[in-house]
Amino acid sequence: MVMNITADKGINTINYKTANDTQKVDNKNNINAATEKSPEITQALGTDTFVKSTEEDTTALTYKPEKNKLTTEEVKGLKEEQENIKVNLIKKFISDTINNQNKLLGKSAENGNNEISQESNDLLTKIFGSLEKAYPKIETTPEGAQKAIEDGGAYSVNAVADRIMTMATAIAGDDPNKLQQMRDAVEKGFAGAGLTFKNATDSDLPQICKDTMTEVMNRFDKLQNKTTTNGVITN
Question: What's the superkingdom here (predicted)?
Fold first, then answer.
């Protein structure tokens, strides 16, 4: 009787172990099969595995900025902005130059706004070679000031007219419409300088300033009435 019980227990034990081992093998096979399908599972099991990125993954993660072209209206707006900058620059240039003439006469109408943007500085340097050539040094002695406004001086009628026309023609090029635009800007520049001087001194611009304006307008007349290969340029 005892031997039968022992035998039964032994059989049960063997059966239990066999079933348990079979289950472990099956579980291991299932894990290995799942790992082959999804390598990432190995990380969850605590095993470090290097997974190489595929070409598709690399392509998907690569940032490729889109190139957006400007619309016709945006391009037009930028061109108009550039033209306005040039028009305003020549008006300021005339105002500053006329004020320098008045300084030499001891009749300055200084308004305290002599700052110039880097963009304007670059444009003047491109046209004249340097900012000093655009705005010659102001003489401080009575003798030097008198010499500067006489014929041949840096702020004489012809010298100032030369610089104004150099700037106007450099901006306008061969375009008759732009040349007229520059003429209008020059007229407004002189008018603005006259108004500033009037408000500051309660008098009209000195004669040298008026003569400078007359000389500049005469030069515009001659330039705009020249015969070119495209015909006659008129006002």
Answer: Bacteria
